[in-house]
Amino acid sequence: MDFNQDWKYLFTSFEGRINRAPFWAGVVVLFLVSLVVTFVLGLLHLSWLGNLFALVMVYPGVALYAKRWHDRSKSGWWSLVMLVPLLGLLYAIYEIGIQEGVPEDNQYGSNPLARA
Predict the structure, then answer these.
(1) Which spans are transmembrane here (predicted)?
(2) SS3 label, residue 52
(3) Residue 106: beta bridge partners?
(4) pLDDT of 28-73, one tens digit each?
(5) Which of 79, 93, 110, 116 has most Cβ atoms within 10 angstroms of its Cβ?
(6) How many Å apart are CA 49 and CA 42, to the nearest integer?
(7) CA 33, 91, 3, 64 torsion: positive or negative?
(8) Are 96 and 23 in contact (CB under 8 A)?
(9) Left, alpha or beta for 109 (phi > 0: left; psi -120 to 50: alpha)?
(10) Is 34 helix (H, G, I), strand (E, B) or coil?
């Protein structure tokens, strides 16, 4: 994995493609940030701010998912499949978390593994 990852691009852009390594790194970062913020807000008895924080965290999560769907040659709108209870989440984990991206260039960009 390239640890010189462009984190701003990873969490703010809906353009392009990413492979599984930066995707999972982004998931771990978002999870850890959420865990720490939730813990701190709980200690400060400001758990009501957690709802606002959760709403803010939707944007970087969807940006991350969209680029991964693009690597699978699908629209970022496929992120909505996660709204289907259990089966949608399982499908998304399989499709964007486990499956390799398409090897050829697509309408979303070139293969991120071919750039190396």
Answers:
(1) 21-42, 48-65, 77-94
(2) helix
(3) 109
(4) 999 999 999 999 999 999 888 989 999 999 999 999 999 999 999 9
(5) 79
(6) 9
(7) negative
(8) yes
(9) left
(10) helix
